[in-house]
């Protein structure tokens, strides 16, 4: 059986668990927001009742609001307000993650910050900022990404960097670690993130070879016509391509040689890479499109004529084939939709946006779930409860666990062998 790259991607958790249509994505967010708002109202009501009861037992005069028959209404965040606030904190996360965003940032590879951003975006599909404030999650997401992307820092060094260079004067190791299990639960324990960066670099190499007239770059369906097309033919076709007409184009003003063509390819790569480093991360692109679609969409924004020519080389030259035409049109429509999303993305700290963020942050302060504010305390309580449960167990149970452990080790597999389902087949990943 021959597996294509598409077959391999469809087997990943990113495709199976984190790919959506625009309508389903909006529905999930609306449902998450509604459920969170309901829980927040109930938690705040319990908190007010508990506070009033404690005040009465201590002989204090109840607050004026306690004399009213109705409590003040809880004004919860809307999905749009949650999205705007989350994007603000994700932008902050990006400024921490790489020196390309800030000279005082962590010197991590771009994949670390990109993975951290996707962890946060995935987490807030099933959780709301009203339950877990983003400022309590983003540092943990970045720390987790350093481990999954093989750029690990010790938690001591990581928290020290946040305190000394990122302005988080009170950040402690406990605050970095406390939300980690909650975050991994929200991620459904799936840590793999497929990015479009590698595909873009591969496209750059291929286009550069085509621009130089390299015959090795002609292993493409469009030129599989008995060897009649040469590297020089491809180079001449690329030289004849019109230049982009948008104001953001930063390549040569005229393309008359292989050197000019190579500069044009390089300019397109630079602009596309910038889109992947911010616009692709802070929009829903990862939820709606595959990595290949994202980088090709970014290239369409960067240099549409060049990208359309490159795209055309991926299909057989038989233009009369209606099946091929329909497939090309379908794929191109998806790429254009992705390009539109990336092109229209804009995040500027305008005075109006700053005021709106201040308003939303104040609103969140009043509708934040009081049961989830102290994540460090909650984490400590969970650990303390587990320790107490272990200490209260009888010696026979402890001995049984020790015997099972020794038996597994004696059998040579400390992990107990493969998991089996009821029908005897390997257990499918959830």
Automatic annotation (TrEMBL):
Membrane keyword on record: no
Region (Disordered): 48-72, 386-430
InterPro entries, per the entry: Cyclin-like_sf (IPR036915), Cyclin/Ssn8 (IPR043198), Cyclin_C_2 (IPR031658), Cyclin_N (IPR006671)
GO MF, any single term: cyclin-dependent protein serine/threonine kinase regulator activity
GO biological process, one term: cell division
Limits of the Cyclin C-terminal domain: 195-342
Pfam families: Cyclin_C_2, Cyclin_N
This protein's record includes keyword Cell cycle: yes
Residues covered by the Cyclin N-terminal domain: 106-189
Keywords, in A-Z order: Cell cycle, Cell division, Cyclin
Gene3D superfamilies for the chain: Cyclin-like
Subunit structure: Interacts with the CDC2 protein kinase to form a serine/threonine kinase holoenzyme complex also known as maturation promoting factor (MPF). The cyclin subunit imparts substrate specificity to the complex.
Protein name per Swiss-Prot or TrEMBL: B-like cyclin
Highest classification ranks of the organism: Eukaryota, Viridiplantae, Streptophyta, Embryophyta, Tracheophyta
């Amino acid at each position: 059986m021959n597996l294509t790259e598409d077959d391999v991607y469809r087997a990943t958790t990113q495709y199976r668990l984190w790919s959506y249509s625009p309508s389903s994505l909006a529905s999930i967010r609306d449902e998450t927001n509604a459920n969170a708002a309901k829980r927040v109202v109930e938690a705040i009501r319990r908190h007010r009742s508990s506070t009033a009861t404690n005040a009465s037992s201590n002989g204090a005069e109840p607050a004026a609001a306690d004399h009213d028959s109705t409590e003040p209404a809880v004004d919860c965040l809307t999905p749009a307000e949650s999205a705007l606030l989350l994007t603000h904190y994700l932008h902050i996360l990006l400024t921490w993650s790489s020196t390309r965003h800030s000279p005082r940032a962590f010197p991590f590879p771009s994949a670390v910050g990109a993975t951290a951003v996707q962890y946060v975006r995935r987490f807030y599909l099933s959780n709301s900022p009203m339950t877990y404030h983003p400022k309590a999650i983003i540092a943990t997401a970045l720390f987790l990404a350093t481990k999954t992307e093989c750029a690990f820092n010790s938690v001591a060094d990581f928290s020290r960097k946040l305190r000394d260079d990122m302005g988080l004067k009170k950040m402690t190791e406990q605050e970095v670690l406390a939300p980690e299990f909650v975050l991994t639960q929200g991620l459904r324990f799936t840590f793999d993130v497929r990015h479009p960066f590698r595909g873009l670099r591969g496209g750059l190499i291929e286009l550069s070879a085509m621009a130089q007239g390299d015959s090795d770059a002609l292993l493409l369906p469009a030129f599989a016509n008995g060897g009649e097309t040469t590297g020089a033919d491809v180079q001449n076709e690329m030289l004849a391509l019109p230049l982009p007409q948008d104001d953001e184009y930063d390549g040569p003003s005229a393309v008359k040689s292989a050197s000019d063509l190579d500069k044009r390819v390089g300019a397109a790569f630079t602009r596309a890479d910038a889109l992947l480093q911010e616009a692709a991360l802070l929009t829903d692109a990862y939820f709606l499109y595959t990595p290949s679609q994202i980088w090709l969409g970014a290239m369409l924004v960067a240099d549409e004529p060049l990208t359309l020519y490159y795209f055309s080389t991926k299909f057989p030259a038989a233009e009369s084939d209606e099946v091929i035409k329909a497939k090309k049109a379908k794929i191109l429509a998806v790429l254009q939709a992705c390009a539109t999303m990336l092109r229209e993305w804009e995040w500027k700290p305008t005075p109006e946006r700053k005021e709106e963020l201040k308003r939303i942050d104040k609103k969140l302060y009043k509708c934040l779930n009081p049961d989830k504010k102290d994540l460090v305390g909650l984490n400590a309580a969970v650990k303390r409860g587990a320790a107490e449960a272990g200490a209260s167990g009888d010696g026979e149970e402890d001995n049984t666990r020790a015997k099972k452990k020794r038996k597994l080790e004696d059998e040579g597999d400390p992990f107990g062998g493969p998991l089996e389902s009821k029908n005897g087949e390997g257990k499918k990943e959830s």
